[in-house]
């Protein structure tokens, strides 16, 4: 397989100073997210009038670290932070499979993009929401299987 040099690949994403304002240059950018975690709730499927349905579920990712004088030594306590992510699946085939097979406790890998939006809640208050729009979901286990650490 023929590979392009790294500078040619990076050139697609970086705009050079030599580009002038008068020339039409479309910069490429990237919005990619990869998450590996456990599902926090069974998926739900929603459909707003006139729009395609969407499968929504939450995903927990954990960050762990050792507190104390040295991370190498066995001393100190282990701390953990859990972050919850809202996952939305719009792609028709993936949306249906995700709704059918993902369950609370399942370990999955999600690839997608991050999306920031606003909505109005029941009390007519505008709220902000961060959502991961999934392009790919890989099933690593079902909810009954617990991975050994």
Give descriptors for this structure.
single chain; SSBP protein; DNA replication; 5-stranded mixed β-barrel; mainly beta; 42% strand; mitochondrion; 149 residues; disordered C terminus; Primosome_PriB/ssb; OB fold (Dihydrolipoamide Acetyltransferase, E2P)
CATH class of the domain at 33-65 and 78-139: Mainly Beta
Main sheet properties: 5 strands, mixed, barrel
Instruction: Output mean pLDDT.
Output: 84
For the termini, the CA-CA separation is 38 Å
Q: Determine the structural class based on helices, strands and strand pairing.
A: mainly beta
Order of helices and strands: HEEEEHEE
Q: Tell me the Rg in angstroms.
A: 21 Å
Task: State the CATH architecture of the domain at 33-65 and 78-139.
Answer: Beta Barrel
* Number of beta-strand segments: 6
Q: Unreliable runs, pLDDT <50, ≥5 residues?
A: 144-149
Gross morphology is extended
Number of helices: 2
**Strand proportion:** 35-45%
Helix content: 10-25%
> What's the assembly state of these chains?
single chain
Strand order of the largest sheet: 1-3-4-6-5
CATH superfamily of the domain at 33-65 and 78-139: Nucleic acid-binding proteins
And the CATH topology of the domain at 33-65 and 78-139? OB fold (Dihydrolipoamide Acetyltransferase, E2P)
Structural commentary:
There is one protein chain. With 149 residues, this protein is mainly beta. The chain contains 2 helices and 6 strands, in the order αββββαββ. It has a 5-stranded mixed barrel with strand order 1-3-4-6-5. Strand 2 and strand 3 (54-66) form a beta hairpin. It is extended. The relative contact order is 0.18. The model is unreliable at 144-149 (pLDDT under 50). Its main location: mitochondrion. InterPro entries: NA-bd_OB-fold, Primosome_PriB/ssb, ssDNA-bd.
């Amino acid at each position: 397989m023929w590979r392009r040099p790294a500078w040619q690949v990076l050139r697609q994403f970086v705009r050079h100073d030599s580009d002038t304002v008068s020339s039409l240059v479309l910069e490429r950018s990237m919005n990619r997210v990869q998450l590996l975690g456990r599902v926090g709730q069974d998926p739900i499927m929603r459909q707003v009038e006139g729009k395609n349905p969407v499968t929504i579920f939450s995903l927990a990712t954990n960050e762990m670290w050792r507190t104390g004088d040295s991370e190498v030594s066995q001393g100190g306590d282990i701390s953990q932070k859990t972050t919850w992510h809202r996952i939305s699946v719009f792609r028709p085939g993936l949306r249906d499979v995700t709704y059918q097979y993902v369950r609370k406790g399942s370990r999955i890998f999600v690839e997608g993009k991050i999306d920031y939006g606003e909505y109005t809640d029941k009390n007519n208050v505008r709220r902000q929401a961060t959502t991961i729009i999934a392009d790919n979901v890989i099933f690593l286990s079902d909810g009954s299987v617990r991975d050994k650490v």
